[in-house]
Amino acid sequence: MYYQDGTYIIDSLGNNALSFQERKKQGSDTSLYVPELIRGHLEDVRLSHTTTAYEYVDEDGVLHSSYGLESLVNIDGYGKDVYVIDNHNHAFAMWWRSYLSGSVQRGSHLIHIDQHSDYAEPEYYMESIFSEYKNLSRVPQENIDTYTNEVLTIGSFIKPALQGGLLANHEMVLTEYSLLQLSILNSLRSIILDIDLDFRAPEMSIQEYEKTITQVRKLIFSPQVQCITIATSPTYINQLRALEVMNDLIG
């Protein structure tokens, strides 16, 4: 089962469907690794040097393979749920964990800090798959985890959370300016903070790095924020740099 142990996706599903046949022609074993989820601390967030988390063939026919994390980590010590993940679609499963454990409310507000909107349509919505459940809150976590990894992709995990009622609304923070202007409304009851570390990739040309770090730290330690997902996003930012930024944010 996903997240209980490290698992390989070997079929053309989820993120692994991207360039599947093209990768196979180039000799790839066309498998992507989904790490186990552990409880731990910052020092337990370690890069893998052996397992491919994300892979694709670009428009010039070049195969790109990226390693992810050894484990996904639910970090202790913050008084709220903090998850460090590699591929961003794992956020969906982590949000659902926080909801089922009572950490966040149904109808939460999402603040999404990212280089990308991640607002694509999924191949299928949850209700079309889990129609036997009258209430999506009764869907077992195992089913959610399978949906996360075999249907969702790094760009299609927000809309299902909205449609399923886990989120009531969302706020996209895609630029340095919008981040520095962001404020939390006191009327917002429950906030999920979703951070993609590729927001600090070179192409974003962040001019006031320290100010952006300070702003995000204010959000992280706000009592209204009860669940935080932090994606290292293999392929979109150097992973060593991603861990440096992570430590600046929550270290």
What does this structure look like?
This protein has 251 residues and is α/β, with parallel strands linked by helices. The protein has one domain (71-250). It contains eight helices and eleven strands. The strands form three sheets. It has a seven-stranded mixed β-sheet with strand order 3-6-7-11-10-8-9. α7 (209-220) packs across α8. The longest helix is centred in the C-terminal third of the chain and has 12 residues, at 209-220. 41% of the residues are buried. The mean pLDDT is 95.
Topology, number of strands: 11
Low-confidence segments, given as residue ranges, are none
> What is the CA-based Rg, rounded?
17 Å
Structural class: alpha/beta
Estimate what percentage of residues fall within beta strands: 25-35%
- What is the averaged pLDDT score? 95
- Tell me the helix content: 25-40%
> What is the straight-line distance between the termini?
31 Å
Please work out how many helical segments DSSP would assign.
8
Domain module tally: 1
Largest sheet: 7 strands, mixed
List the helices and strands in order: EHEEEEEEHEHHHEHEHEH
**Can you list the strand order of the major beta sheet?**
3-6-7-11-10-8-9
Structural shape: globular
